[in-house]
Amino acid sequence: MTLAGELVLARNQLNQCSESENLDLVHETAQRVDLITAELQEAVMATRMQSIGIVFHKFNRVVRDLSSKLGKDIALVLEGEEVELDKTIIESIGDPLTHIVRNSLDHGIETPDKRIAAGKPEQGTLKISAYHEAGHVVISIIDDGAGVNRERVRAKALESGIVTQEQLDNMKDKEIVELIFKPGFSTAEVVTDVSGRGVGMDVVITNLTKLGGVIDVDSVEGEGTTLKIKLPLTLAIIPSLLVSVADRSFAIPQVNLVELVRLTGDELQDKIENLGGGSSVIRLRGKLLPLVDAQEILKIVNKTRDLSELASINIAIVKAGETEYGIVIDSLLDSSEIVVKPLGKHLKRCINYAGATILGDGTVALILDVMGVKSSMNLTSINQAKFDEYSDATVVDEDDERVDIRDKQSLLLVENGDKEQFAIPLGIVARIEKIKASQIEHIGGRNAIQYRGDTLPLFYLEELAKDITPIGDKENLIIVVFKISNREVGIVLSEILDVVETDSKVDAFTYKQPGIMGSVIVDEHITLIIDMYELVYTLMPKWRNEQKDESIKEIIHQGEQGKEEARTPVILIAEDSKFFMTQIKSFVEDIGYETITAEDGALALQALKDNADKIDLVLTDIEMPNMDGFEFTKLARADERFAKLPMIAVTSVSGEEAEKKGKDIGLDEYLVKLDRDQIIERCNYYLNK
To answer: Could you tell me how far CA 387 lies from the centroid of its own chain?
Structure first.
């Protein structure tokens, strides 16, 4: 009621100032209306939120009854019952979750005699938990049963005609497990009333997809199965990306959005391939993704365009279930929270749309359904092994696994003043916000804005880098938000230019100055790389001291048993680039650690052996001459002395395949090269274990 009263006052003020034609007062009042509306929206949404424990608690009886019926001893563990979801979602997830739980009890967890024979505890465990992650709620269902039998799944899928033998031969283990979600698939010999009751897991994934959910399955034979479901907090208002296709506006839900890609000139020829039947694919960091033209799928044009012949294209990479693909759009408009309006019954057959919304100018924008587009275009993941000729940057290991090893840096290109181009390592950027200059408040010698119910400190590049052209008097500004010392801050800039990948050599000398770590040539422009951490820590030295106090002063390594003498932890850094070596070395030495350095994997392995009783942690690059980070890690792990030594990849090598290979051979973490705070936080974590 208080907020409603505030809204009435703001409305009256807006009506009054609009008549006076005072634009500054109109903008100020509009911002107040926006703030009150956001708070009112949050309050109203809170009334729709309910605890997920409402759903979880009924599983106590389900597990108890089925355990008795199946002759199994199963313990149920519930976590996160206090997590809240929209009432609509709570009402809709009960049946899919029950179906999954019944399957875990019936097909997953073994009988006591089989568990004992397999060397497991007689009692099986089913753990159901919920937690928040990146603005979503993740529900995990974990059992310690027999896991998914790949051979049985392969045989059943082949027998029922879901896949061909050729498709099976090209599938990875995870893709074989995901066949359980295919329509008509079942490994049950007899239909019972315990688990599926004749209904397959495809119904589960269909129901969850309608809620905007994503389901992932991971199973290890003999050890158990983990199902993870990611759900939006609410269905009424969703964050979306607004795009333009043939001068018409459409919305793509951000929950489905993976990244945005812009290709121009030679990149179009290099990264887009036309396959048989007019299909196109994009080669992105070692992965081949299906590509669809929005104008074609939305029936806006009748003629299929040759994408590789266009001057430039924008691509929205989206994820539908486990399939990623690209949608070619004409331009990006804005990101916005939209109110979802259902489509009328006469439009239900239009499977490419999930609903509609009304934009600020009163026009209607249809919301794209990425699952519907996937279904209408019959899109599937492309097997990289069948398209090796498209990849020019792969390596083949002993198991014939192909991993993208191009050591490129992803950079956000920005402008501060006019005609000066800067870059920020994309991995450390949390968000990008557009603001009015009038929103910035200068109080107590510091700049800040009111942001998401809190205060966001702001910093200007010219505050430290004195030779930089000031940002000037601009009405609209950009804030690049990132995290430092467990708090969010923003760097104020004038314009966002592009996101690029480059492997150009970094010049760490010519333009080096406070706030600038070096320069690189991008698109034939000398581009200065902003040192976000140095900029903030130099202007706020107290924050740097706080981080030191919370890390090295708390980490004291004792020697062998019986010795009381403490010593400073030692970190081995393997990195071939002098620029990145200097940066990473300064990160860890700045808070008090000692370092040993090596310029490639071979030298690092020798240094590790020479200092076996001294080195406490390893930071390694992946792409290095003589011996890369993968081979170095594999050889180090083969030595019993280093079997449990923390080894962290600090690299720009991206992609799930690269990370999976790294984890398989013994790397504990994958970190971004210039993310100072994350590197320090993970070093502290492993040195404190």
So the answer is: 26
Domain that holds residue 121: 52-232
DSSP 93-114: HHHHHHHHHHHIIIIISPPHHH
Angle (deg, nearest 10), helices 87-103 and 201-210: 160
**pLDDT tens digit string along 150-163?**
888 888 888 888 88
Q: Say whether both 479 and 514 belong to one domain.
A: yes
Closest CA to 298 of 337, 352, 255: 352
CATH at residue 59: 3.30.565.10
- Residue 300 — pLDDT band, cuts 50, 70, 90? confident
360 in the same domain as 509: no
Per residue in 42-54, pLDDT (tens digit) is 788 778 888 999 9
Which one of 188-197, 573-582, 613-622 scores highest in mean pLDDT?
Answer: 613-622
- Phi, psi for residue 527 in degrees, rounded to 5: -120, 125
DSSP string, 445-477: TEEEEEETTEEEEEEEGGGT-TTSPP--S-SEE
- Two tokens, residue 661: 């290979």
DSSP H/E element including 368: strand 364-368
Contacts of 296 (CB under 8 A, 6+ apart): 304, 305
**Measured distance CA(674)–CA(341) in Å, rounded:** 43
The candidate with the shortest Cα–Cα distance to 640, out of 603, 666, 607, is 666
Examine residue 401 and state whether it is found in any structural domain, yes or no.
no
Does residue 69 sit in the same domain as residue 204?
yes
| pLDDT score for 194 | 52
What's the confidence (pLDDT) of residue 406?
40
Amino acid at 307: L
Please tell me what DSSP assigns to residue 13: H
Q: Mean pLDDT across the stretch 183-208?
A: 62
pTM of whole model > 0.85? Answer: no
Split at pLDDT 50, 70, 90, the class of 489 is very high
- Residue 187, pLDDT > 70, answer no
Is the distance from CB of 459 to CB of 490 less than 8 angstroms? yes
Residue 235's nearest CA partner among 131, 90, 347 is 90
DSSP 251-264: EEEGGGEEEEEEEE
The separation between CA 2 and the C-alpha centre of its own chain, rounded to angstroms, equals: 38
> Under a CB-based contact definition with an 8 Å cutoff, are residues 287 and 384 in contact?
yes
Residue 400 is assigned to a structural domain of this protein: no
Mean pLDDT, the chain, whole residue set: 81
Instruction: Please report the sign of the dihedral spanned by the C-alpha atoms of residue 654, residue 657, residue 660, residue 666.
Output: negative
DSSP string, 382-449: --GGGGGGG-SSEEE-TT--EEE----EEEEEEESSTT-EEEEEGGG--EEEEEEGGG-EEETTEEEE
Amino acid at 400: D
Q: Tell me, yes or no, whether 397 lies in a domain.
A: no
